[in-house]
Structures are given as C-alpha cells and as structure tokens.
Amino acid sequence: MTLAKWFNEPGLADELMTALASGILTVSTDYEDVRQADIIVIAVGTPVDANRAIVTEHLEAVSAVVAPLLRAGHLVILKSTVAPGTTAPLESVTTPPMLPL
Fold it and tell me: Predicted confidence band at 51 (pLDDT cuts at 50, 70, 90)?
C-alpha cells in the first residue's frame, strides 16, 4: 500500500505502515469496531455552503452513530476543519452520562 501521497509529513507514512503491520494500530470503517477500541479518531469532511458557512451535518451524523458505542475511558479525537467552538454542542451527544458515585 502506498500512503506517501496522502501525507505531507516526512516519515509519517512509514511510521503508519509499521504501526499497522505490528497491530498496534487498526483502521476501520465499521462502527462496531468502536466498542473494542481505546482511541477513536473520527475524520470527516466539513464542506461549506453557498454562504461559506461550515456545514457540520457529516460530523453530527457520525457523532450520533458513534455515541451509543462509547464507554467510559474512550478517547475520541475529531479531525475536522471547523471553527473553534463548533464541536462544543456535540459533547452532549458523544459524552456518556457520568455514573453516580
């Protein structure tokens, strides 16, 4: 697999291939795999509308699907080009309720 064309970071493609080959990193498009993961990286496009406003529908849709699969201790990283504060409303969707002490 050639990944160098997807990354503009010297050595990153090689490191990624090493991590994949060793099993320390897995990549999936199957939402059910979230249950077994410790760290989830969600990378979605963020298009703009005719008024150049950011369209967050894709990010919201993925968050709604992933949220029920999360468990305490999951680290969720959102990789999306959005303005500061855009993801704050998603916290209520992606954060599991706190357990009473």
Answer: very high
pLDDT of residue 5: 63
Contact 96, 71 (CB under 8 A): yes
Cα pseudo-dihedral 75, 38, 69, 3, rounded to 10: 90
pLDDT at 4: 55
Domain count, the chain: 2
Residue 59 has which token pair? 């990010």
Same domain, residue pair 15 and 52: no
Continuous segment of H or E residues that includes residue 42? strand 39-43
Amino acid at 98: M
What is the residue range of 8's domain?
1-27
pTM metric for this prediction: 0.68
